[in-house]
Write a structure and sequence with these properties.
Elements lengths: L2 E3 L9 H7 L8 E3 L7 H5 L6 H13 L5 H13 L9 E5 L2 E5 L9 H17 L5 E6 L3 H10 L5 E8 L5 H8 L6 E6 L3 H13 L1 H6 L2 E2 L6 H17 L7 E6 L4 H11 L4 E8 L4 H8 L1 E3 L19 H8 L4 H14 L1 E3 L2 H4 L4 E5 L2 H15 L5 H13 L7 E5 L7 H8 L20 E3 L3 H11 L7
Parallel strand pairs: 4-14, 5-6, 5-8, 6-7, 7-15, 9-10, 9-14, 10-13
Antiparallel strand pairs: 1-2, 3-4, 11-12
Helix pairs in contact: 3-4, 3-10, 4-5, 5-6, 5-10, 6-7, 10-11, 16-17, 16-18
The chain binds pyridoxal-5'-phosphate.
């Protein structure tokens, strides 16, 4: 399997190099050159297998020669053994044909654990055998940071630097990051919003000398391995609900477009999907795009679903590349327009046969859905999941098709919003019960590339990659 850049100018790489690099050297993102195909019979044969086994089978074609099937099988077993629910990603039922995909049973209570627990093991495996090290730098709107830190803490081959927008993540989210005291973990609160953090990380990656010297690697969803790992749960849930014999619809609370793009990848591989619903909060660049064809930046408003407070969705570029028949020059031009003119427009006819629909959910609607879901189903959902439920109801075309809403975080991760909606303060699960008593460690930096580089220079344990 070869991976190519969405901007068409960086060299093609194998899986190993794509995982260790993250962003392509031409500023693009790596995507598989071709989509591995699974026949209906091959998908049916996954029925009854464990989550770890399905992951090993579905993902193997993406690995090429970089990881052997037996090593990979061990990794999926170990990564998903760390989840607190034996089914790893269980489904719960809300109505005759409405389901929640519970993605929050990992160590940090959000869906990002599903990919990052596996990525941590991949780093160890790929680096350990070469005696190499990497410096991981990532920006987080809240959940990626804690999941990445949890996956990388204490690992010899990795130093991890996580930027978060100061004061714009929830207390639980911040503490899940800053109370990890391992010496290879560095938390940075940046004066700015999430897009500022993400832009700093991109700028750091585009400083190729710095990037080479410190072997900088990405754990954001620009890293292909993250998207890849998320493909699996579209398969496992479809199989539980009668796929591939019938198509399933999914509603996905979206920010950086990584999670829903993984669903698009599953469809490309042959999984029958009827609708992929892009659910956004009031920071709605994605839902505006899918309804109008215009991708235009606006400011970011803080919301009660902060992990989706994003205006530029990095994985969206991967989707555009596919939409334009892998035309890297066209994508490069659109990204130039986005940078210089603040947006671009895609012909709607080009979007027509895609499975996507999109809707947004404002703050009051989010609270109303949380309250209603508790009242009618006895189920407490977090604000991101509520946004997904609202969009599912708004966009659904066929009541007979099972609708699966991705429950992307545990309600206890966003207790203030849940309490405001329902009067119930959701308790943290046992392993985190003392989170608010633990010591915190973090540093503040201005929104400025050279300060960030100095900070990393003073702390990263590798001076050069070989
Ligand atoms: C990251 C996150 C999202 C958004 O996922 P993307 O892959 O960035 O679209 C939604 N909900 C929660 C709880 C998250 O942590």
């Amino acid at each position: 399997m070869r991976y190519i850049s969405t901007r068409g100018e960086a060299p093609a790489l194998n899986f190993e190099d794509v995982v260790l690099t993250g962003l392509a050297r031409d500023g693009g993102l790596y995507v598989p050159e071709t989509w591995p195909q699974m026949s209906h019979q091959e998908i049916r044969d996954l029925a009854g297998e464990s989550y770890a086994e399905v992951a090993a089978i579905v993902l193997q074609p993406f690995l090429g020669d970089s990881v052997s099937p037996s090593d990979f099988r061990q990794m999926t077993e170990k990564a998903y053994g760390a989840f607190s629910h034996k089914a790893v990603v269980p489904l719960s039922q809300l109505d005759a044909n409405d389901f929640l995909m519970e993605l929050y049973h990992g160590p940090t209570l959000a869906f990002k654990d599903v990919a990052l627990q596996l990525l941590g093991l991949l780093y160890d495996h790929l680096l350990g055998r070469k005696n190499k090290k990497v410096t991981i730098v990532g920006a987080t709107s809240g959940d990626t940071g804690s999941a990445a830190i949890e996956a990388c803490r204490g690992r010899d081959a990795v130093d991890i630097f996580i930027l978060h927008p100061a004061g714009r993540v929830s207390d639980v989210q911040r503490r899940q990051m800053t109370t990890v005291l391992d010496s290879n973990v560095h938390n940075i609160a940046v004066d700015g919003d999430f897009d500022d953090c993400q832009a700093l990380v991109k700028a750091l990656f585009n400083d190729l000398d710095f990037r080479d010297q410190y072997a900088v690697s990405a754990v954001n969803s620009i890293n292909w391995a993250r998207v890849m790992a998320q493909i699996v749960y579209y398969f496992t849930t479809a199989i539980s609900l009668g796929g591939p014999g019938r198509a399933i619809s999914y509603s996905v609370p979206s920010g950086n477009f990584g999670d829903i793009y993984a669903g698009y990848c599953a469809a490309k591989m042959g999984l029958p999907i009827e609708q992929l619903i892009v659910a956004t909060n009031r920071n709605d660049i994605l839902s505006r795009f899918f309804n109008t064809g215009e991708y235009i930046k606006e400011g970011v408003d803080p919301t009660i679903s902060p992990s989706m407070d994003i205006q530029v969705s990095s994985n969206f570029e991967r989707f555009l590349f596919d939409l334009y028949g892998q035309d890297g020059a066209a994508v490069k031009e659109m990204m130039r327009q986005l940078d210089e003119d603040g947006g671009f427009t895609v012909n709607m006819s080009q979007l027509n046969n895609a499975t996507f629909s999109a809707a947004k959910c404002d703050e009051q609607e989010t609270l109303d859905v949380i309250a209603k879901t508790l009242k009618e189903n006895g189920k407490l959902v977090d604000p991101h999941t509520a946004v997904g439920l609202k969009a599912a109801a708004d966009c659904r075309r066929n009541v007979k098709t099972p609708m699966v809403t991705l429950a992307t975080a545990h309600p206890a991760k966003f207790p203030a919003a849940v309490e405001k909606a329902t009067g119930h303060y959701p308790e943290l699960p046992g392993h985190m019960a003392d989170l608010f008593e633990r010591e915190e460690k973090m540093d503040h930096l201005p929104n400025d590339l050279s300060s960030l580089q100095t900070y990393i220079r003073e702390r990263a344990r590798i001076l050069s990659a070989d």
